Amino acid sequence: MLDGFVIAKVMPGELNAMVKTIMDQMEITDANEAVRRVNSHEWVVSQKVSLWEGQENVIDLGVLTSNGTTGVEWINRLEAKSFKVNDYVAKKVLRSEDFRPTYGVSYHIVVLKGELWKNSDRITKNIHIKAKSIKLEKPNVEVACLIRERFTDEEIKAFGLSALIVMHESIRDPRGDLFLGVHCYGKGHYLDAIFGDPDSEFDGRDGFVFITSIQP
Hints:
It contains seven helices and seven strands.
């Protein structure tokens, strides 16, 4: 048990930021109520633990929450923010009846880096086998839009990646199956789509997006 006035050397701004963080996590606006819950042990502060600690080729992007935006609305929303949405393939996916938005669904996003496989082994079916082996699941296609809006090209490149391919249920097209992805090639800032089948090969600098329901 600590004795004395333990916050004597803590700056007021830091205390304010801490309480605001706790309020955000509790989803309340009353600072006194937030403090009361912590002091009464109704709310327990715990250390954040990564599910994939020590696995350098697995990236935990945290949680993103859906907001009910339709595919057509995503086109307008992203382009209004100066993102580039591929005129043919990406917009075709977003306008497809297979694009089914949700509202208030929290997706815990995990990325498998292409470095996990040798070049000849980095194919769609092997990527899904690996994901299933560590209990990852296919995401809703809207996850691609949430990632594009949330993460900059610079943040994605900092992981050693140039694209994030969202491994959702494929969207059928006469030219092949389509998958949405966030691309940083060239001038970057793209929401694009790629064609793929079970044996399609990918680049070593691609990351493959899944979700997890596992809690730390």
